[in-house]
Amino acid sequence: MSTTNVSTPIPAEVEISNVLAALHNHDLMIKTLCPALISYEFESGDPKTQATYSVTDKKPIGQTTYKLTLTNVEDGVDSLVNAKPPVGILTIAGKWRVKDGMLTEDVEIDGNFMMKKMAKGNVEKTHPGQHTQLLEQAKA
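RESULT FIELD:
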């Protein structure tokens, strides 16, 4: 299993309650986590607590569909991606937390060697921008 961490300071003018509201907004989270989103649909659960979605987005290797489960917790949200790309199974579990004036994300990636390496590089490259987008939304 491969792990990585992304942390972003929460600007002083952004209320912590607004950051948590943004994290708990599944529609916003999906649109933020999937910048090349084609479509998504609710599958099961309760969007106020825990829900699973079928997400289709565009990747460098083409269009892909995967399951995304978002679980709201008191201090953030847990995200779980279960994907089955042509080269194997990929699982990406993220714990987004608000603590000590920071938005932190701990990510665990599981899959074959190539998938883990590619996914970790993608997380490290794109997730700081996703944090910034979420914090911008929390300002409103």
